[in-house]
Amino acid sequence: MLPDAEQLLDTLAEQIRAQISDDSALVGIHSGGAWLAERLQQKLGGDIPLGTLDISFYRDDFSRIGLHPQIKPSNIPFDVENQHIILVDDVLYTGRTVRAALNELFDYGRPSRVTLAVLVDRGERELPIEPQAIGAKVTLSKGQNLELIRDNAGKFSLRLHEPK
After folding, report:
1. Residue numbers of the domain that contains 38
2. pTM value?
3. Per-residue pLDDT tens for 12-57?
4. Domains identified in the chain, total number
5. Comparing C-alpha atoms, which of 143, 116, 142, 141 is closest to residue 131?
6. Residue 27 maps to which CATH number?
């Protein structure tokens, strides 16, 4: 049974709240991480700056898989230089998405530090990347994938995709 995504969001918000400082900003990775960052901003009081990244051009498999048809522009409407960036993603798996996001983020400037916050950590890293805030750790079988879903009312749920 999958954990309740809305409860995980509350858990994640409490962990992030303890790490926020005056120079903190949220940056969500499209699309699930961007959705989460928006909701986290609301839960954390709404005054923390918010940005989004679309890492499509920064992926290390870009030449192999090509461009994703749902590319969204990155939007960081604040100065990244010397900011504490809370990088938000939905499901942490190999670490390659986070690596791409860090590469793009540093094109905007040099943050004072970066905190990684993920709704679900499913393990099986290919890169040495670890989150500092986690909603839950979930173990999946080989070939299974986890997806964050947002309904029309903005409520989150998790969907498990079985191998074909």
Report:
1. 5-161
2. 0.93
3. 999 999 999 999 999 999 999 999 999 999 999 989 999 999 998 7
4. 1
5. 116
6. 3.40.50.2020
